[in-house]
Design goal:
This protein is mainly α. It is 77% helix and 0% strand. It is globular.
Length: 140
């Protein structure tokens, strides 16, 4: 049985999910470099590294700079790929994994409430659904 192609509403919903997730990633990166408040400096990224240490309190301190930069590169890559639709299935799957790891790290270090309040699990689930739908479209 052949999969039915996406309707206009499904395509619009996928575009909405792509743009919402992609811009959220890029907005977070913009914040950690001071772009949003127009005071671009390293102090913003230093605060982000302190926050990375809080969220990953179970990790050795020596890993924090790597984790902060890896998250930044991953968020830029996933954000841009989602928005432009490049390798959508893989970008969405990577986003789901990245957000899932972030949610679990938050839950371990700060309790379950913060990742629920900030909808990190929900965003991860949305990215996973986007990846599954993109796969269905590729096979249909």
């Amino acid at each position: 049985m052949k999969a039915v192609g996406a309707t206009a509403v499904e395509r619009a919903a996928m575009l909405y999910a792509r743009v919402a997730l992609g811009t959220a990633f890029l907005s977070a990166v913009a914040g950690r470099f001071g772009i949003w408040d127009r005071s671009i400096d390293w102090a913003h990224f230093e605060r982000f590294m302190r926050r990375t240490a809080e969220v990953n309190a179970f990790m050795p301190a020596v890993t924090i700079p790597f984790l902060a930069w890896a998250a930044t590169v991953a968020e830029i890559s996933c954000g841009v790929a989602l928005i432009v639709g490049f390798q959508l299935r893989w970008a969405a799957l990577g986003s789901a994994v990245l957000l899932g790891l972030f949610a679990v790290a938050m839950a371990i270090s700060t309790g379950i409430k913060p990742p629920l309040d900030y909808s990190v699990f929900s965003a991860s689930a949305g990215a996973l659904l986007l990846a599954l739908r993109a796969r269905r479209n590729a096979n249909g």
